[in-house]
Write a structure and sequence with these properties.
The complex is a heterodimer. By secondary structure, chain A is mostly helical. Helix content of chain A is 75%, strand content 4%. Chain B is mainly alpha-helical. Classes of the chains: A mainly alpha, B mainly alpha.
Chain lengths: 301, 316
Amino acid sequence: MEQFFLQLTNGLTVGSIYALIALGYTMIYGVLKLINFAHGDLFTTGAYLGFTVLASIALTDRLGQYSGIIVLAIMVMVMVGIIGIVLERAAYKPLRQSSRLSAVVSALGASIFIQNAIMLIYGATFYFYPQDILPRFTINFFGIAVPIMRCIVFMTSIALMIFLYVFIQRTTIGAAIRAAAIDQDAARLMGINVDRVISIVFFIGPALGGAAGLMVGMYYGHINFTMGWVYGLKAFTAAILGGIGNIPGAMLGGLLLGVIESLGAAYISFAWKDALAFCVLILILIFRPTGLLGERVADKI
Amino acid sequence: MKRFIFTNNYILWLIIILFFCSPMVLNRYWVDVLNNVGLYALLGLSLNIILGDAGLFHMGHAAFYAIGAYSSAILNTQYHIPMIFLIPVGGIMAALFGAVVARPIIHLRGDYLLVVTIGLVEIVRIALINDVFGLTGGANGIFGIDRMVIAGLKIRKPHHFFYFIFMFIIFSVFIFSRLKQSKFGRALNYIREDETAAQGSGIHTAHYKLLAFVLGAGWAGMTGVIYASKMTIISPESFSFWESVIVFMIVILGGSGSIAGVILGAFLIIGLPEVFRGFSESRMLIFGGAMMMLMIFRPQGIIESMPQMYKIRNKP
């Protein structure tokens, strides 16, 4: 039973990271109807930028442990968000009127480009985050020892998601994003600057992905230039699982996929862990392509 | 116009003849590079049916390639069946696998199909690494695969393979170009251009799409058998997702739907990096950039697939 709860907390932690990345997929899909294959690599970019900033300007020494990490996270999110906007301008904007295959191929090209740019800049080796920057104790939850990092990652992800949800539901910009997601032309007629909305979405999505990358770096301690691919694919699975284009769906899908994966790894087979996530993806697309919470995009599949 | 096409044909024949003589002047290394180009051209041609003609975004082609290579390797090393007989067997195994996996996913549209096929190729790779049924040899793969023997001649040197592979390519080009002009090829093109209209005209779209998948998978399986006998050792890493991406890029870059374009694409993507070996590190970076640029400036690929012209025969 203890094993079960330990795996459950692990699954929720990993799942919350998947959910954060999945939000980027789902928001961009919602507005542009495009699977941003480069999103996983923006996540990697976040992890690497976090590492560079941490190693080069020693934020935690100057500002103290906690405020240093918060400043670091904000810096990484802004930088990855700007990269996201540039990516949209360079690779997707010229293709907005062309066929879907063109946009998908361009997205794949962008993914390969970013991944290899990271490899050429940093080299193909693993990088290790400094281990002394974060608290490393465990707290006791009803007799189960949970590492504090798991709680921090989980709480931060949930906080970011709630923040995003409120932002989308309660602000004017959020309303514009929702309107553009439903019908771009109608939104344009209502005086919404759709190009700006798309830029905002391409800022928020990658920023959340970058934050997830930073968290993975701090949680697991090591990063690699190819890691974005697997995380991206799994987060995409999470987005589909919850219903793509649906923000609460991405959160639910991410958490669910994380739990399924860690319980599957513990009780079925560790070696088949990655295959399990892809099986979930295929099964959900065959049997319920709209996802658990999605309804609106039924005709898109 | 007619004369222009004829001169074009002469140039084409000249290139083919020069190409066939090329192993006599090239050394082993370059012949081997040409063999690799040939194998990828075969894979590209087989994917071209699915991606180019039927317009299905399929990025899991390495899975079928792997099924062909592995089934022939297992049958050869366990039961000592000569590799030459395993070419059709590997093709049939891959085609069966293609039929089984494509059946439930064939109705998915566009990018969803793309993602499912990516998942598929990853599942196949993980299954191979995990030594499924105790047959695939895990991460080390299978070694000691026999060479092919045709009429007493053992195909083992690069220039043997050169002629074998390019004969196979000529055979494939012949089959596929005939297929393109058949009812089947026309139906696929109709589905690619407008699926709803195709359905409205009485074309059983699911049936034709599945058939395209099975045919492409079978051809990739046969290519896998040739690959296995060429390498004599196969491992899961040869069938990773990136192989699928490379084959996908060959078809898109060369010109999806165009047979000449696919062969040109194989030369550019596999052959060109060998010429510029100094850039081998940044090879994929350039590919990624090229994919983006190509989609923006020339989405139809280098050699555009021309619309077919048919002579109208008056009914008597």
